[in-house]
Amino acid sequence: MSIDSRRVARVVVGRGFRAYRCRLFRNVCLIIAILAAASRYECVAQKTPESVDVSIRFVDVLPDANYPELLYWFLTPETLRNEKYSNDVEHLERDSPFTLAFLTPRMGTDVFDPKTHDAISKLVAAAHQHGLKVGLQFPLAGSALQNDRRDGQTTISEAEVTLNAKGEGSAVLSDEMRHGKPVESQLLRVYVFRKTSDGQYAPGSLHDATEKAQADVSVPGVVKVRVLGNSAMAGMAAYIMVENTYNTLDLFSEAFISLLHKRLDQYRDVPLDGTALDEFGYMSIPFPPPGAFRDRFGGKAFAATLERERKLNFADTLLNMRYSPTGHPEVRIRAIDEYWEHLREGPLRIEQEFYRYSRRLFGEQVFAGIHNTFHNHLTNDEAWATGVNWWRIPRQYGQSDEDLSLPLRMGLLVSHPGKIMYDQFYGWDIQRFAAKAMHDALYDARLHYHGYNDTGRWGADLSGEPFLSVINPVERKIRLLNHFDPAAPSLPLLIVFGMPAQLNWFPDNAARNAYDVDGSLDIEGKVQQIWDAGYRCAVVPSDLIDTGALTLSTGNHPIINGHKFSAMAYLYPQYSKASTLAFLDRYARAGGPLMTEGSATRDFVGHDVTRQWATIAAHAQVDRFDLARLGELGISRDALAPDGSMLEDGSSLRTDLASIQKNEPKNFQFNLAGHIYTGSFIGTVALKVDEAGRVEKFACGQCSGLQRDGKTVLRITEPHDLILRKDASGYHMLIQGHEDATTVTLTP
User: Fold this and answer.
1) Are residues 467 and 380 in the same domain?
2) Antiparallel, parallel or unpaired: β 684-689 and 200-201
3) What pLDDT does residue 35 have?
4) Do residues 669 and 612 both lie within one domain?
5) Is the pLDDT of residue 31 over 50?
6) What's the confidence (pLDDT) of residue 381?
7) Of 113, 273, 667, 694, which one has the greatest count of Cβ atoms within 10 A?
8) CB–CB of 130/93 below 8 Å?
């Protein structure tokens, strides 16, 4: 965006000194600037010993700063036909607030077709001419097999039959995933044992009977298995597993890494500003499943990596996930925990390599996108899709999808380097976009708008006047916050939940839900109750302890990426790793404020930890989930709720949608550094002061002034959107509007 050189001035103001403007003086400065062939000029009033420099810059439209305003742009045949994207680019630059558009293929567009590549190359060049950045989503999830079926992802379906007097039995196993049937099926293993109860067998009775079984594959995905034993097996149970290969690459295969490199290499000649894997993970299971989903994922590379890295036999692990010798529950506990942890590494492995290779090709500045939340909940098919790796995938900013709750999104924010996070959102109600954008901005969350040129399948068309007339005024006010560059929200409470407990329901069969995870814990419901009670919090899994991302400061505060928390709640420690229990023990013994929910009798590998957990729980201030006792952790409710929030550097901000849509200023009040700051705003306002109460930075929509303890700090003759910042060289102000007849007085 070009800025009119005549709208740049430097004004010196001091305590009690009123800024002045002189038309003759301004014209002289303009003549000097023109003669010097400069792009802009500065007017400097004579200094006094008490003066403070304030550099004031006027702009017609406030440019974006620090954080891109994200848009999803559907790449359809219509977009590419007759270079329609040229008009789209001009429209985005002229009429919308968006600064980074992610292209996502729709309606059969193949981004790996050479003709599409050439069109995207031209599109990116046109966008860059208009100051618009462009990212590309690479559709790698569910990538088809290349040449070798041995690289395929598999599912393992199962059945249990009781053998007759001859030691014989049969079962028909069928399998189909959300997007189709397998291309190949085969018998994996048959185990025979004397069953003592559900999920248990007599020690010493287990043996592999695969050689005594026959498999008839009528069509892939439908397999009849017959066990042809002998009378010695009469009455025994046979556990049958069939492996089905799908036309989808195994995430652990080197073939997938090779394909990833190949696809990115196709665009190495295009200066992309962002690369994206969207909702990346395994092939989709039936959603919702017909009855209950009881398959498990596998593959040759999947199994080989499990055996190499965990020293566990793949088929035996699958057996042990379902059965254990009587009196040895640790066998089953460990198998379930190890399998889930391994499965979760598959999508993470690809995400990490995609991130690394993208930066190698396009530079360290390339924006990593998008979210890997899929169906956005801990208890549905999310674990089978993405591995619930939301907090660990490599991103500059935490990113999520449309209905993830704020406590969980705050966990994503603190788990990534950036000070804000993005939430992709779509729908048909334009007002919901506006309301969500303003509400989320309170907590450093920004919308990733979905999607430009939507035909209505997912939601509103973001390119139309009805949408932009509502969103543009909102985003203009959020840009003020981007310039303010807020610290992360003040989140005094860190909530950690046990990932193993969430994924491993054993031995409580009643807790086993349709997706084969524990559906009884209601972690999301509990953390939302805490948030709704006014206690601001961030939610992360126990993974972050085990990987070392969550540590303890020298003052015994939980800390993630430099974000320090005052207290911690730990939900469901059952089956925790030794590293998690050691962390909690160290924190609790040192007096760290702690609330616990649930108990632990066994650790990740099944060892008894009853006494260890009892010691931890004994040191906890609150030994059960209890909203009424959260105050005992030394934390308090957010005093600025519901339309304001404190930030972790001591600054504050407020947002208000009604003031924008009614064009009516709203009063604000901040209590900072022992002083009361007041004024009015439209849309957004944020303020940071130093220990003495002097203004360090201030952002305000339609600002008409700022008072400290009733005395004027900032006076402006005409309300404007403005940013005021202080650095080593003095104060700097950016004002959206015309300088004519605008006078500013600052008494910092």
Assistant:
1) yes
2) unpaired
3) 36
4) no
5) no
6) 97
7) 273
8) yes
Instruction: Spell 86-115 as b/e; 16+ CB within 10 A means b.
Output: eebbeebbeebbbbbbbbbbbeebebeeee
Question: How far is residue 621's CA from residue 624's CA, in Å, rounded to a whole number?
Answer: 9
Amino acid at 605: V
Q: Report yes or no: 583 and 594 within 8 Å, Cβ to Cβ.
A: no
Residues 6+ apart with CB under 8 A from 504: 333, 336, 337, 340, 518, 574, 575
Question: CA 364, 370, 375: angle at the middle one, nearest 5?
Answer: 155
Taking a C-beta distance cutoff of 8 angstroms, is the pair 415, 448 a contact? no
Contact 350, 260 (CB under 8 A): yes
First to last CA, the chain: 31
| DSSP 8-state class, residue 119 | H
Q: Which residue type occupies 157? A: S
Residue linked to tokens 């974000």: 563
pLDDT digit string (tens) for 315-330? 999 999 999 999 999 9
Q: From CA 706, how far away is CA 746, in angstroms rounded?
A: 9
Torsion angles phi and psi, residue 245, rounded to 5: -95, 130
Angstrom CA distances, 34 to 6, 21, 29, 42, 336, stand at 10, 20, 9, 12, 74
The reply to whether 408 and 497 lie within a common domain is no
- Strand order through the sheet with 493-497: 537-541, 493-497, 567-571, 594-597
pLDDT single digits (tens) 51-102: 467 899 999 999 999 999 999 999 999 999 989 999 999 999 999 999 999 9
Question: Among 335, 352, 345, which residue's Cα sits nearest to residue 251?
Answer: 345
Residue 39 lies in a domain: no
Token representation of residue 179: 């997007």
Q: Rounded mean pLDDT of 548-571?
A: 98
Do 522 and 395 share a structural domain? no
How large is the C-alpha radius of gyration of the chain?
30
- Write out the residue range of the structural domain in which residue 361 sits: 73-140+346-484
Query: Which of 633, 657, 690 corresponds to the end of one domain?
Result: 633
* Helices marked H in 140-253: none
Compute CA distances 31 → 492, 495, 545, whole Å: 56, 62, 63
Q: Which residues contact residue 139 at a Cβ distance below 8 angstroms, ignoring those fewer than 6 apart?
A: 105, 111
| CA dist., res. 145 & res. 689, Å (int) | 58
For the stretch 311-314, contacts whose Cβ atoms lie closer than 8 Å and that sit 24 or more positions apart, written own/partner, are: 312/338
**Residue 444 CB burial class (10 angstroms; 0-12, 13-18, ≥19):** buried
Residues 203-255: tens digit of each pLDDT = 999 999 999 999 999 899 999 999 999 999 999 999 999 999 999 999 999 99
Single-letter code of the amino acid located at 584: L
Closest by CA to 698, choosing from 663, 667, 725, 659, is 725
Q: Alpha-carbon distance 194 to 254, whole Å?
A: 40
Question: Is residue 691 included in any domain, yes or no?
Answer: yes
SS3 344: helix
E strand or H helix that includes residue 340:
helix 329-362
Domain membership of residue 170 (yes or no) is yes
Residues 628 and 527 in one domain: yes
Q: Could you give the C-alpha distances from 291 to 177, 243, 540, 734, in angstroms and in order? A: 14, 20, 31, 60
Does residue 552 lie in a domain region?
Answer: yes
Whether residues 159 and 296 fall in one domain: yes
Q: Which one, of 288, 296, 294, lies nearest residue 244 by Cα?
A: 296
Residues 6+ apart with CB under 8 A from 343: 296, 297, 302, 383, 387
State how far the Cα of 433 lies from the Cα of 435, in Å rounded to an integer.
6
Cβ neighbourhood burial of 466 (10 Å; 0-12, 13-18, 19+): exposed
Residue 615 belongs to what H/E stretch?
A: helix 610-619
| Residue 114 shares a structural domain with residue 160 | no
Residue 292 · residue 514 · CB < 8 Å: yes
The Cα 41–Cα 8 span in angstroms is: 6
Cα angle 505, 509, 512; round to 5: 50
Residue 103 tokens, joined: 């292209």
Question: Would you put residue 726 in left (φ > 0), alpha (ψ -120 to 50) or beta?
Answer: beta
